[in-house]
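The pair is listed for reference:
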Amino acid sequence: MKAEKLQNQQLILQGSMLHAILVLAVPVVINSFLQTMYNLTDTYWLGKIGTEQLAAINLVTPVQNIIINFGNGITVAGSVLIAQYIGAGQKEDARGMANQIFSCAMIFAVVCAAVCFLATPGIVGWMGAEGETYLYANTYLRTVIWDMPFLYMVNLFSAVHQAQGDTVRPMLLNLGGISLNMLLDPLFMVVLNLGVFGAASATVLAKFVPAVVAFFLLCNPSREVSLNPRYMKFEKEKLKLILKIGLPTAIGGSTMQLGFVLMSKNVYVYGTQAMAAYGIGNKVNGLITLPSNAIGSATATIVGQNMGAEQVDRAEKGYRMSMWICVAFLFIGGMILSRDFISTAIVSIFSEDARVIEMAADFLSIMAFWCFTNGVYNATSGLFQGTGHTEVTMAIDATRLWVFRFLTLWFCGTVLHMGVRSVWYSVVISNGISSVILYILYRTGLWKKSKIKTNKKDVLVNAEVS
């Protein structure tokens, strides 16, 4: 495995760029698909049970995602920092950083899960849920929130391995988790008749198992980057780096998710059917954008390692190639999914309610037609993350929701009186504007001023392999 990782590092720093992108991105696509399947499996079975249950989960999922995204800032920082240390040949610093990330992530996960558990009734009530929807949403969120320590453990495993150029093992780990979830969902929800509680419990248990496996694999002392208690004592300089790189990502991601909470609140005004349609459309559209998200993640690793090795031109080459691959894929896929008969057939899998199907298909068609802009957004975000400029992605993430999306939502709803379609168009317009702004920032050359300082060692990766 060590030889394989060194070969991947050599590929990233010296080999074919297209090959490097595919080697990193393809397993991440599969991994992201598996992660998405957790929610899709819940959506499928809850859609069979009833619209109220489906609407309840869609209503509170953004609340859960606020905390998840804030914590993900820690693991994103870890992946970027470890990648740059590896690119510079500083393996000891890479190991120390992984242990610091582990300590921070686990403390954060446990504290936030406990706080969210206590605050859930107030949060659900504030979002406007009433009657059965309130009960279902409260039950689901108070149960599923306890998957956070397990989720962060798996995310840390993925960050450590991806930074070393290995995206296959995280994929295999998640394959085990989703397979278990697909078995537990119908067992808990239908056979044992546990409904929403069963969906949440299945998710928690399905993440617990791979988290335990991830922990023991990371504790293996024979690995270059491994967990070791002697490295877990907090180090001031490393914590400052984590905050410097991770805090903007955390704030940007959680602020964006808070915007999604308010979006859900706006959608719920149109009723439970609209809420169910919104959730289905978002989840299905997420499938087509998985490759773009994965390539954006691969871009961060490629840029991070090459910037650590002081290969700025190669880092830019990796970004530009990644962006055009993303745009081409999403344009073709979007044109296919935006056809009405295709979008209707897909959303019909998740609901038997005619009105829900109609609205979800309309939402999916509009998003799919314009989703190619996500290719620019994902790849350019990866570029700025790989160079440590996470404050740029934080600012764009926040303004995308809080300025562009809500302004469009207000204009379409209040001025044009477009009803629930004002929500659909607010999504695609805000995504498009943000993509253009990110690309303009790339053209300024700001990303070339890497914020992560490493002491590059003259160590040739191919020499290590041989």
